[in-house]
Design brief:
It is a single chain. With 139 residues, the chain is an alpha+beta fold. It has helices at residues 22-49, 53-63, 71-78, 82-94, 116-137; strands at 69-70, 98-103, 106-114. It has five helices and three strands; from the N terminus they run H-H-E-H-H-E-E-H. A three-stranded antiparallel beta sheet has the order 1-3-2. Strand 2 and strand 3 (106-114) form a beta hairpin. The two termini are 15 Å apart.
Length: 139
């Protein structure tokens, strides 16, 4: 069964100037499309899984690394501050979706991994996420 989602037509129009470049108009259209798709995905994550896109993104990084990642590496990969990663991780630890452990020999560093529950939940979310994107971009 294929699920298709309604996505409104995106209109992103730049002011036209003499010597206007199609590249700029294309960039604005791509940006508008990205923003629209992201909004739909955020809403679906919230409605279906009661989770935010940043939390899903953090779990996606951990899913790629079965041995986990240092908090600093998560921060680098997600392109957010260490404080943001700490806040997201705290929430996911409280829900039993990730585990955070100190790294021997480095009192300031922590390793974060998905728990078995986190792996199961992430796989369910990733499967639906893929179908949402296919539905939004299909046809």
């Amino acid at each position: 069964m294929s699920t298709h989602y309604y996505a409104p037509r995106v209109e992103a129009r730049a002011r036209r100037y003499e010597g206007d470049h199609g590249s700029l108009r294309l960039w604005l259209q791509l940006l508008a499309c990205t923003t629209t798709i992201e909004r739909h995905v955020r809403e679906r994550f919230r409605d279906r899984f009661d989770i935010t896109l940043p939390r899903f993104d953090l779990m996606a990084q951990l899913d790629r690394e079965p041995n986990g990642l240092k908090m600093s590496e998560l921060s680098r990969r997600l392109m957010v501050t260490g404080g943001n990663v700490t806040g997201l991780t705290d929430q996911l630890v409280a829900e039993g979706l990730v585990v955070r452990r100190g790294i021997p020999g480095d009192r300031r560093a922590y390793n974060v991994r998905l728990t078995p529950k986190g792996k199961r939940q992430f796989q369910a979310m990733a499967t639906e996420h893929e179908s949402w994107i296919v539905g939004l971009l299909g046809d």
